Amino acid sequence: MRTSIATVCLSGGLAQKMYAAAEAGFDAIEIFEPDLIAAPQSPEEIRALADRLGLTLDLYQPFRDAEGVDESVFADVLRRAEAKFQLMQRLGIDLMLVCSNVGTATVDDDEVSAGQLRRLGDLAATYDIRLAYEALAWGRFVDDYRRSWRIVELADHPNVGICLDSFHILSRGHDPKQIEEIPAEKIFFLQLADAPALSMDVLSWSRHHRLFPGEGSFALPTFLAHVFRAGYEGPLSLEVFNDTFRQTDPTRTARQAQRSLRWLADRTAELLGEEASRTGGPLPRLPEVAAPEAFDFVEIKASDTSGVEVLLEQLGFDFGGRHRSKQVRLWTWGAARVVCNDVPSASPAPHIAAVGFDVADSDPAAERAARLMAPPVHRRTYAGEQALRAFTSPDGTEVFLSHAEDWAGEFDGGVSSTDGHAVRIDHVNLVQPWHSFDEAVLFYTSVLSLTPQPSQEVAGPAGLVRSQVMSSPAGGVRLPLNLLPSGQLPTDQQGHAQHIALACHDIIGVVTAARERGLRPLEVPGNYYDDLVARFGLAEDLVDTLRDLDLLYDRDADGEYLHCYTETVGEVFFELVERRDRYDGYGAGNAPVRLASQAT
Amino acid sequence: MRTSIATVCLSGGLAQKMYAAAEAGFDAIEIFEPDLIAAPQSPEEIRALADRLGLTLDLYQPFRDAEGVDESVFADVLRRAEAKFQLMQRLGIDLMLVCSNVGTATVDDDEVSAGQLRRLGDLAATYDIRLAYEALAWGRFVDDYRRSWRIVELADHPNVGICLDSFHILSRGHDPKQIEEIPAEKIFFLQLADAPALSMDVLSWSRHHRLFPGEGSFALPTFLAHVFRAGYEGPLSLEVFNDTFRQTDPTRTARQAQRSLRWLADRTAELLGEEASRTGGPLPRLPEVAAPEAFDFVEIKASDTSGVEVLLEQLGFDFGGRHRSKQVRLWTWGAARVVCNDVPSASPAPHIAAVGFDVADSDPAAERAARLMAPPVHRRTYAGEQALRAFTSPDGTEVFLSHAEDWAGEFDGGVSSTDGHAVRIDHVNLVQPWHSFDEAVLFYTSVLSLTPQPSQEVAGPAGLVRSQVMSSPAGGVRLPLNLLPSGQLPTDQQGHAQHIALACHDIIGVVTAARERGLRPLEVPGNYYDDLVARFGLAEDLVDTLRDLDLLYDRDADGEYLHCYTETVGEVFFELVERRDRYDGYGAGNAPVRLASQAT
After folding, report:
1. pLDDT at residue B598 tops 70
2. What is the pLDDT of residue B414?
3. Nearest-CA residue of chain A relative to B534?
4. B296 φ/ψ angles, rounded to the nearest 5 degrees
5. How many CB atoms lie within 10 A of CB B598?
6. Taking every annotated instance into account, which residue ranges of this chain make up the domain VOC (chains A, B) (predicted)?
7. Residue A63's closest CA among A37, A29, A89, A97?
8. How far is CA B562 from the centre of its chain?
9. Taking the mean position of all CA atoms in its chain, how far away is CA A303?
10. Are residues B435 and A487, on separate chains, in Cβ contact within 8 Å?
11. For residues A17-34, average pLDDT
12. pLDDT band at residue A281, thresholds of 50, 70 and 90?
């Protein structure tokens, strides 16, 4: 499988983009014309740089406003094209993307477009160049790949083929199945992009909001399966216009892009099953690993975590012992494990440094993560200690693939067996900086096989917070990722706190006991309870209990949710939750109240 | 004219929003329910705070899913409503916004909706509360103000009237003229919002992208004139959901909001002409001031501006003398004046600190600015010196309303009379931080009567830059405002440079002479010139000249544009431009090349 990326996906100058693509393991790039025009290097220097980096230059793009024009205009098209063919020769590129006409088309006639493409093909042939014709989703007359294919068929020229782009096809809702009817040798190129489901004009959607496969909501494995069934054997090339990637580190973006293709190839191979061997080249598979269905532990790090330990004790955690060789203490409550790690050099405020996911066999899981280019974490271990497999997630939180039975013996208290009120970690909420939010979705989708749920927005006093839950099929692992308001940086304290939610069966009993141990939950305003009465028509005595305990309440068709929050210590707080019946949410309607209370 | 603002427009907690609204001079607020629910103060405390601040509570909003429902559901609507009426009594609010049903509507029948509103009105009457029914643009059945008015007419209840919201009407393209047919006493409330022209679903557009009047593209003076012609005499209330305002200083946002209403009232009074006295209350007018048609000067400040002075001399500026009492030096070239101000305490890098606009009579212009709450600038003056009128613009740049003849005599060289090549300042490009971009558009629209032109986006190596030109009717003043990529803060150096563009009649001669004086223009890559040939089919010798001089070129149907840039000193650089024929742009197509060259 050859992988390629368009230079427009990455920030920086052209040379910088090429270094990033090569470093991430891409085989090829598409040269986006404005990147070349703005580059100080000559075409020959770019060609030589690509050679040195082991990159091939697979496509020059785009050539616009080529067909469907009056003959007088077409003369100038040929003149423009020839200048570009000469340039491509200097670059050593033999394939040009020709997109369907947006600006100058005046003739809505397949025969005319085909005839003009044929003549362009004749000219291109004299330079040994081939043309890949692509239907833009907003083309003036040609905006559907089935029509662009009809025109290519009519052109009937060996140097004229089609370019397929998943965005232009799926954004319009066009059925990709008919791709299978196109002869493989006429599919000159394939561009891939994902995108979130947005209801906006397709041009703005395309220019600002494309994503890498696995970050959006297009059914790309299905799309790609159709392309392979057609017999396509060319490169898989990413073309992603995205406002964020345009301004973030190109090396990091390129790795994220490569990860997305490896995940996509694996998913497509899974879908094709036995067909896979009969189509395309062999697709590289990833080790199959089921999504974890439980959290193994959460690690909180600080120069001094004692404030967190006071909270843990008040909540109902038992001290589970000290680590035999590190300044680390284990706290357990039923199946919930929290590790407090005092590190003088760490950022001083307590924060979630690592999340362990319960993986029975960590070897294939770690192998999968490595194949997906997750950066490994190395922590010092001593003789007789378990070397845990861990990787750094995009926001810097370390992700451990672990299993408590393998490591709990290193603590002198062992694993507590009191099951408390059958407590377990319900969810871990991680705050994401704006620039790595989409990358995090791909990371957890691909590395841990978690599934993104529909995202929500909640209003806080300092802006809107977008929440994207990643979860395992049975709901044993739930990971809400909170995106800060765009203007906020991760260094802003406001709204930056992360939290650990603990599920129990009797929250009223648990909170009553915790208050007796000195816990002071986050205060909930009285107006909230007045509204609860109006909204849900709850019984007065239930509302009184909720009010006394600062408990929040939510209800939907599937059940009820009672929850409360602790105060924040450093950058961490805890939530206690009780899910009744089949309630599957997170009390999003209460989030504005929580955010406002935390801000006062 | 009573002014009001919905609490949802401002960031912070409810009390903080109320302080901000009062400080900005609002008479009233609308209480947005989630703000009250999340507030720690009781309704009685909020009411007392409003009293102390001199604010009235004009509206409680929103009450949802009220009509068009089955009778079984309506029983619960009445129960919910009564709880809210009791709450409103505690707050002392007698008007509730009832929006058209989005979630629970099942009956698409005006008679049913009217009957249910009438019964809600009966219940409201027992609490002396009135209901303002509003058609949401995305209502399930009722999404047009003409239909909501028909329903209110059918309800025929003294406590049931209509609420008009400019966003819900103009976003759908509904003609506001028929507002004039609604009896004034049935228009219970008026909400105003502007918005940019966006092609996206109306719900997202409304929830994230509303703007204050004068910041978007709705024809709000026309809209408001229809409302006044109907005889409406109630408050003008702003309801603006905007992602940026949700996270920026509420005091500043409230002032911006108040400014928008003062501007809107003035524009509407202008439109109504003699009618104004017969409609509504008297609308406050602003002093009428024509837009300036020339820049008076630009001031560059730094701890040491000598690097800029070297550039000025190379470009062709003449030294115009020292100020008689300050460390300030004047440079002139034709009608272009640049003042260099060495201030040890200033931020050390040279930057544009002030822009003077040529205003023949600065008194009414300054009075207008003051009425629009532009923060005045006070600079120390000595006996016999002109006290210039100046205000701080949203990005911190000081805006002077001045006229060189009044102040140039304070410099020992006087104003140079050499007209050089009839040089003048063509445009001044100011970089805007993300959080004050819309405010800047309103500032220059209202204070200086400049007109926003269609905005453009250009790709740079560190992200997309949005450019919004504000200009005077004859084009004598052009002020491109550049919005940095959303992730960048004004403290980032990247892309933060501002510039002064100087127009001349013979750029080839001017640049040739400047190079002889040692000027080194920003280098333009060779690939750019190869593309110029392909794109425009320019003559080889012209392209050779452009290439030799690092000149950029653009052409449109109206004319040609030749321009080049100096290197950047601190945060400032200069551009030389020659506009041929009626070319009216800024060479936006060349901006990516400029940004890339500046980044290397």
Report:
1. yes
2. 57
3. A80
4. -90, -45
5. 17
6. 424-567
7. A97
8. 30
9. 32
10. yes
11. 98
12. low
**Contact, A184 vs A232, CB < 8 A?**
yes
Q: What is the pLDDT of residues B448-500, one digit of tens each?
A: 999 999 988 888 888 888 999 999 999 999 999 998 776 655 444 445 689 99
Cβ separation B33–A531 shorter than 8 A: yes
Question: Which chain A residues are Cβ-neighbours of B530 within 8 angstroms?
Answer: 83, 87
Bridge partners (DSSP) of residue A502 are A425, A576
Residues annotated within the binding site of A for a divalent metal cation are: 134, 165, 191, 239
How many CB pairs (< 8 A) connect A and B? 162
Residue A443 in 3-state DSSP?
helix
**Where are chain A's structural domains?**
3-278, 295-599
Looking at residue A493, what is its pLDDT? Answer: 47
- Number of CB atoms found within 10 A of residue B532's CB: 22
Render B175-203 in DSSP notation, one character per residue: -GGGGGGS-GGGEEEEEE-B-----B-HH
| Residue B493 DSSP symbol | -
Among A9, A79, A247, A554, the strongest candidate for a mutation testing the B interface, having the largest count of B CBs within 10 A, is A247
Torsions phi, psi for A427 (to 5 deg): -155, 160
Q: How far is CA B589 from CA A120, B11, B218, B484, B553, in A?
A: 26, 38, 28, 17, 9
Cβ–Cβ below 8 Å for B83 and A487:
no
Question: How many Å lie between the alpha carbon of A594 and the closest alpha carbon of chain B?
Answer: 8
Question: Is the omega angle on the peptide bond into residue B62 within 30 degrees of 0, that is, cis?
Answer: yes
Q: Which of residues 86-125 of A touch B (CB under 8 A)?
A: 87
DSSP conformation class of B376: B
Interface list for A 412-441 with B (CB within 8 A): 434-435
Instruction: Please state, in angstroms and rounded to a whole number, the distance separating the CA atoms of residues A58 and A60.
Output: 7
A465, closest residue in chain B (CA to CA): B243
Question: A84 and B534 in contact by Cβ < 8 A?
Answer: yes
Tokens of B312: 């000025």
Average pLDDT over residues A393-399: 96
Contact A116, A68 (CB under 8 A): yes
**B295 pairs with which residues across the strands?**
B357
Which B positions 20-49 lie with beta carbon below 8 A of chain A? 33-34, 36-43
The binding site of A for Mg(2+) consists of 427, 499, 575
List the CATH code of the domain at A3-278: 3.20.20.150
Chosen for mutation from A14, A37, A42, A47 (greatest number of chain B CBs closer than 10 Å) is: A37
Once rounded to an integer, what is the mean pLDDT over residues A323-344?
93
pLDDT at A280: 57
A324 within 8 A of A415, measured Cβ to Cβ:
no
Q: Which residue in the set A200, A243, A461 is minimally distant from B201, CB to CB?
A: A200
- What CATH code would you report for B295-599? 3.10.180.10
Q: Helix, strand, or coil here: B206? A: helix
Cis peptide, bond prior to residue A62, ω within 30 of zero: yes
> Is the CA virtual torsion B355, B361, B365, B370 positive or negative?
positive
Assess A544–B contact: CB distance below 8 Å, yes or no: no
Q: Does B493 contact A at CB distance below 8 Å?
A: no
Amino acid at A116: Q
Cα(B266)–Cα(B279) distance, rounded to whole angstroms? 14
Segment A414-435 mean pLDDT: 79
> In this complex, do A462 and B43 lie within 8 Å of one another by their Cβ atoms?
no
Written as one letter, the residue type at A415 is V
Q: With CB atoms and an 8 Å threshold, state whether B599 touches A434.
A: no
Q: Is the pLDDT of residue A360 over 50?
A: yes
Tokens of B360: 């023949």
Given CB atoms, is B76 within the 8 Å cutoff of chain A? yes
DSSP 8-state symbol, A509 = H
Closest alpha carbon within chain A to B531: A37
| ipTM (interface pTM) | 0.90
Instruction: Give the type of residue at B128.
Output: D
- Dihedral, A568, A574, A576, A582 alpha carbons, nearest 10: 120
